[in-house]
């Protein structure tokens, strides 16, 4: 099986579409990488594979190798300095400018790669019109033939909404092997605050209970809107529905995540997030670092480096910290 190199497997689930599972998966992966972990992302949302777009690698193609398929690299392992300079694992990187002789704080960044049906389709707009058995076969192929690098710390599996063929095939394949079953640490469940979304996501929590998948926590997405023109964060979809649901099912609540147009611009256009002075998200002033004009102008950086300027990054540092604590508690 292609999962023998993976140390920890985490599912990202939701009973409803459009709640932002792929966005949450992307930010979990970037944050884990920024903690120095090597990360893989497997996209099994076969009819709507959006992970390649989130990571800005839509035009990449899968490489075949003896024994299976090689994941597409988002970035290699490297070191990120406070000034944004990066150094790869082999020591190559940008040289410091003259006068920058002082030692800069270093952040190790783990390698990140992903696999998706989006890399295999001839055109990204091609419709995937498959019956259940073909979906099941594709999920099993992804699980058995993707050659993840040895010692991969975390594999995040982005799933489609609901509890259908892909989910059943995924769990049957993971749980039939004792070693892989032991490395399945649990699931992060995503919802939005509205009652209509929460009612659907409750079905996913019941699915986890019936199949024996541990819930590592609930993330409430779209709980607010970070205005790009003022310093307000407005709760347009209300807030708190996810936390109430987590309490009802006695599972951990990981946190609330607002809609941030700057994150959308980062994904769609590669622009570094910038916020008006005084912008506060979940009690944090996220505009402090954005006032440096040199930092604002420097855009050639990688996705993972630019993400550190996003208002959502501190929130996901907390969320990932809780997820890792819950994984450790369950070992």
Description of the structure:
This protein has 331 residues and is an alpha/beta fold. It has one domain (7-93, 106-330): 3-Layer(aba) Sandwich (Rossmann fold). Helix content is 34%, strand content 24%. It is built from eleven helices and 16 strands. The chain has helices at residues 21-34, 51-54, 132-145, 165-175, 178-183, 195-211, 241-248, 261-269, 293-297, 303-307, 312-330; strands at 6-13, 39-43, 63-65, 68-70, 72-75, 78-81, 86-88, 106-109, 112-116, 152-158, 184-191, 215-226, 233-234, 253-259, 280-281, 284-285. The strands form four sheets. Strands 1, 2, 5, 9, 10, 11, 12, 13 and 14 form a nine-stranded mixed β-sheet that branches. A three-stranded antiparallel β-sheet has the order 7-6-8, with no helix packed on it. α1 (21-34) packs across α11 (312-330) and α3 (132-145) packs parallel to α4. It is globular, with a radius of gyration of 20 Å.
Please render the helix and strand layout as text.
Blueprint: E1 6-13, H1 21-34, E2 39-43, H2 51-54, E3 63-65, E4 68-70, E5 72-75, E6 78-81, E7 86-88, E8 106-109, E9 112-116, H3 132-145, E10 152-158, H4 165-175, H5 178-183, E11 184-191, H6 195-211, E12 215-226, E13 233-234, H7 241-248, E14 253-259, H8 261-269, E15 280-281, E16 284-285, H9 293-297, H10 303-307, H11 312-330
Parallel strand pairs: 1-10, 1-11, 2-9, 2-10, 11-12, 12-14
Antiparallel strand pairs: 3-4, 5-9, 6-7, 6-8, 12-13, 15-16
Helix pairs in contact: 1-11, 3-4
């Amino acid at each position: 099986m292609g999962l023998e190199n993976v140390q920890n497997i985490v599912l990202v689930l939701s009973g409803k579409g459009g709640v932002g599972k792929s966005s949450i998966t992307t930010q979990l992966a970037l944050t884990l990488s920024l903690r120095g972990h090597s990360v893989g992302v497997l996209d099994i949302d076969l009819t709507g594979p959006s992970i390649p777009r989130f990571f800005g690698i839509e035009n990449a193609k899968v490489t075949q190798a003896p024994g299976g398929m090689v994941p597409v690299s988002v970035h290699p392992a490297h070191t990120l300095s406070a000034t944004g300079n990066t150094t790869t694992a082999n020591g190559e990187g940008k040289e410091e400018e003259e006068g920058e002789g002082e030692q800069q704080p270093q952040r190790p960044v783990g390698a990140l790669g992903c696999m998706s049906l989006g890399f295999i389709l001839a055109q990204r707009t091609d419709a995937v019109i498959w019956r259940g058995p073909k979906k099941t076969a594709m999920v099993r192929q992804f699980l058995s033939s993707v050659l993840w690098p040895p010692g991969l710390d975390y594999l995040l599996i982005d799933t489609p909404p609901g509890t259908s063929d892909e989910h059943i095939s995924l769990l049957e394949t993971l749980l039939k092997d004792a070693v892989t079953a032991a490395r399945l640490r649990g699931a992060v469940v995503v919802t939005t605050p509205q009652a209509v979304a929460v009612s659907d996501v409750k079905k996913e929590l019941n699915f986890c209970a019936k199949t024996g998948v541990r819930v590592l926590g609930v993330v409430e997405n779209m709980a607010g809107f970070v205005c790009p023109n003022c310093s307000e964060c407005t709760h347009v979809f209300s807030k708190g529905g996810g936390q109430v649901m987590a309490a009802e099912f006695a599972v951990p609540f990981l946190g609330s995540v607002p809609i941030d147009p700057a994150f959308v611009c980062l994904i769609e256009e590669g622009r570094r997030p910038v916020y008006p002075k005084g912008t506060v998200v979940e009690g944090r002033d996220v505009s402090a670092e954005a006032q440096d004009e040199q930092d604002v102008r420097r855009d050639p950086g990688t996705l993972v480096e630019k993400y550190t300027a996003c208002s959502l990054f501190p929130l996901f540092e907390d969320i990932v910290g809780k997820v890792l604590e819950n994984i450790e508690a369950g070992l």
